[in-house]
Amino acid sequence: MIDQYQNLIYSICLKAVGNPFDAEDLTQEVFLSAYKNLSRFDGAYEKAWLSKIAVRKCLDFLKAAGRRTIPTEGEYFSALPDSRSSPEETCLIADSDHQVRSLCQQLKSPYREVAVSHFCEQLSVAEIAAKEDKNPKTIQTQLYRAKAMLKKMLQERSD
Fold first, then answer.
1. Are residues 126 and 136 in contact, defined by beta-carbon separation less than 8 angstroms?
2. Tens digits of per-residue pLDDT, 34-66?
3. Checking phi first, is residue 41 left (phi over 0); if not, alpha (psi -120 to 50) or beta?
4. Which residues of the chain have pLDDT under 70?
5. Residue 143: which residues within 8 A CB-CB, separation 6 or more?
6. How far apart are CA 118 and CA 147, in angstroms?
7. Per-residue confidence (pLDDT) for residue 2, from 0 to 100
C-alpha cells in the first residue's frame, strides 16, 4: 500500500498544509493510522480510504496549528478592544446610529422591520428569519431591497 499510494498521500498532504516537512510527517501518520485500522477495513476502495484518512489528518493538523500559534506583541495589543473612546467618538457613533435608525424607519413594511433588525439591532439574517418566522431567503431578499432603498435615499440626500 505504501509503495502504491505514497506519492498520492504526500501530494494531498502537501497541498493541504503547504509545508513539505509537515506533509512528510502527515503522510507517515496516515499510513500508521491505516495500519492500525486495517482490521476494520473491508478491502474495497483502498485509494479512497487512504485519501479520506489523509484529508482528515490534514484538517486535524490545521485546526491544531491555529491553536499553537502565539501572537506577537503587536498582534496582541492590536486585537484588544479600545475601551476608551473619546467623547467625540461616542457622540459621532450615537449620531450615526440615530441617522441609520431614522432612515430605516422611513422604509415601508416589511423592509422597515428587516432593516431595523439588521442595521440597528445587529441581527443576522438567520436570527431575523427566526424572529419573524419567515424563510431566510425571504429575509435576504427583503434586506437586499432595503439596502437598495437606503442607498437611493442617501444619494438623494447628498444631491
1. yes
2. 999 888 888 788 999 999 999 999 999 988 877
3. beta
4. 67-86, 159
5. 114, 115, 118, 125, 128
6. 10
7. 87
